[in-house]
């Protein structure tokens, strides 16, 4: 019961965060400078999630290890930069990381 | 014949939205499965896991709330932890404000429910800021509803099938690769790239919790955006 209550409260609060930001900023004509600021802030948040997840994955007990995670991220980044479709970026990035982890385990 | 060709070439917004979201499915499924497996290790039942996946639509915060409750934290405090983790969605909401401004009231209330990392990246990369309101709405709803359904099914499958899922699936690789796939197309100008670089550096150079890292990154990225000139796509800049 406590778990369900926590989920419901968290969902309500999270919806509030999402909706409030949309409603507050959509009601007024924001200066272009501020709109640019929000777009750049969102790009910075997404990039911070990359770093956080790399650090987290490097610390995890999984079989890959930090070097394999870095290989996966670099391959995915290069493919994404070249405009390769997202599904291929995901597939090839994970495969490259998995292969690097396999080679690392075989050598080490 | 020309008309047929044109119809094939100019896909409907719904179709484009669904196709864009479908590209994300290879990441969402393992992520949802991993989340379900992790939730199964807490006291969360399958129906509550499903409710969380459907209503919260944010795996890390759902898992954090479940772990807090298992540690004896009150429901309200556990929910507060989850909401804190999700504060970054406010940044996405604000960045999408221009697109929501021209929408009907019902959509301005329903649409934000689905604002997450993936939906923001899909929209910012997949549909132009000057797209007509109806085109954006159809693209967005098709994309987020597909992701929403896949996420729910994956989380519940993870809860129910956790013990028999193969341990060789490299879950730890999927999350960073997915965020790279989201972040790189979003950084399509020099100032956006600078903001993204600062955001990534903040997360590497600080030891504050991830939720706070995202907010510090947002502040720095926002500052870059405010002092930069209007965004010019990288291709245009490079062509000069």
Structure report:
The complex is a heterodimer of chains A (108) and B (240). Chain A has 108 residues and is mostly helical. In chain A, 85% of the residues lie in helices and 0% in strands. In chain A, helix 2 runs antiparallel to helix 3 and helix 3 (66-81) runs antiparallel to helix 4 (86-107). The termini of chain A are far apart. The longest helix of chain B is centred in the middle third of the chain and has 29 residues, at 133-161. The radius of gyration of chain B is 19 Å and the shape is globular. The chains are: A mainly alpha (108), B mainly alpha (240). The interface between A and B is large, with 76 and 104 residues.
Overall form of chain A: flat
**How would a textbook summarize the main sheet of chain A?**
none
What is the straight-line distance between the termini of chain A?
A: 48 Å
> Structural class of the helices, strands and pairings of chain A?
mainly alpha
Low-confidence stretches of chain B: 1-5, 236-240
Which percent range describes the beta-strand content of chain B? under 5%
Mean pLDDT of chain B: 84
Based on CA atoms alone, the radius of gyration of chain A comes out at 20 Å
Helical residues, percent of chain B: over 70%
Count, helices of chain A = 4
The number of helical runs of chain B is: 14
Order of helices and strands of chain A: HHHH
Principal-axis shape of chain B equals globular
| Rg of chain B, alpha carbons | 19 Å
User: What is the CA-CA span between the terminal residues of chain B?
Assistant: 39 Å
Uncertain segments of chain A: none
SS content category of chain B:
mainly alpha
């Amino acid at each position: 019961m406590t778990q369900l209550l926590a989920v419901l409260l968290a969902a309500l609060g999270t919806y509030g965060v999402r909706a409030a930001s949309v409603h507050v900023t959509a009601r007024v004509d924001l200066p272009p400078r501020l709109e640019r600021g929000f777009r750049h802030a969102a790009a910075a948040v997404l990039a911070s999630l990359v770093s956080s997840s790399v650090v987290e994955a490097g610390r995890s007990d999984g079989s890959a290890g930090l070097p394999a995670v870095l290989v996966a991220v670099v391959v995915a980044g290069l493919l994404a930069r070249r405009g390769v479709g997202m599904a291929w970026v995901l597939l090839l990035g994970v495969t490259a990381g998995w292969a690097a982890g396999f080679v690392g385990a075989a050598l080490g | 014949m020309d008309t047929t060709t044109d119809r094939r070439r100019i896909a409907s917004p719904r179709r484009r939205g669904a196709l864009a979201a479908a590209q994300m499915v290879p990441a969402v499924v393992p992520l949802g499965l991993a989340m379900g497996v992790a939730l199964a290790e807490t006291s969360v039942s399958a129906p509550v896991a499903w409710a969380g996946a459907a209503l919260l639509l944010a795996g890390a915060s759902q898992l954090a709330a479940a772990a807090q409750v298992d540690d004896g934290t009150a429901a309200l405090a556990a929910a507060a932890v989850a909401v804190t983790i999700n504060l970054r969605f406010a940044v996405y909401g604000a960045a999408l404000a221009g697109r929501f401004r021209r929408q009907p009231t019902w959509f301005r209330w329903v649409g934000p429910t689905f604002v997450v990392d993936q939906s923001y990246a899909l929209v910012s990369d997949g549909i132009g800021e000057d797209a007509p309101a109806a085109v954006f709405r159809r693209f967005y709803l098709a994309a987020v509803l597909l992701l929403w359904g896949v996420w729910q099914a994956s989380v519940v499958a993870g809860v129910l099938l956790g013990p028999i899922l193969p341990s060789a699936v490299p879950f730890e690789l999927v999350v960073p690769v997915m965020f790279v796939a989201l972040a790189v197309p979003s950084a399509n100008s020099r100032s956006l790239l600078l903001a993204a670089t600062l955001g990534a550096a903040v997360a590497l150079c600080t030891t504050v919790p991830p939720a706070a890292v995202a907010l510090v990154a947002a502040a720095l990225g926002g500052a870059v955006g405010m002092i930069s000139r209007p965004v010019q796509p990288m291709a245009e800049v490079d062509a000069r």
